[in-house]
Amino acid sequence: MASIVALIDYGSGNLRSAEKALARAAREAGLPHEILVTANPEDVARAERIVLPGVGAFADCMSGLSRLDGMIAALNEAVIARGHPFLGICVGMQLMADVGREFGDHPGLGWIEGEVVRIAPNDPALKIPHMGWNELKVAHAHPLLVDAGANAHAYFVHSFEFRAKNKGHVLATTDYSGTINAAIGRDNLAGTQFHPEKSQAVGLALLKNFLTWSP
Q: Domain 3-212 belongs to what architecture?
């Protein structure tokens, strides 16, 4: 029987690309996972793994998630209370923070202590958003990053970053005239600021790792 990977549809994610990448990762790894795009909290409750994508402003994404009746409660139950593996992508990762400071202060899910703030490169000539391929630097060994060795590059598109209060929760960084946190995690929670679904071999390897991860 296929285990369900719930890909949350709350109007703020590149769902088709993420769905295709997860399905390819499962197929190539020989895993019997069903990738289910859903806005139904009941699907989250029965899922083995949960993926939260996100594109756009923090407040808009949090508002979209809140508008799905019962979804935040279902996420808290499945991810925090029951410990199911969770992957946040881009703003989906940022929503794990305590607060997002884009166009005012907005509460997040509060799963990992920290704040989401605007990128401030040391070189003012660098453009925001930070967009394109950048090298990943693993800060703390993690099962999702076992294949992100030297010269691993991933694809980024963002103007804000997650600053974790606990440096031990920073899994990987990148450099954009200053250090930017590229992956955050603790326990059964993990998130990437980059887009694994757009990061070719590196992203596909991370998704395969997520599908077999047993925190």
A: 3-Layer(aba) Sandwich (3.40)
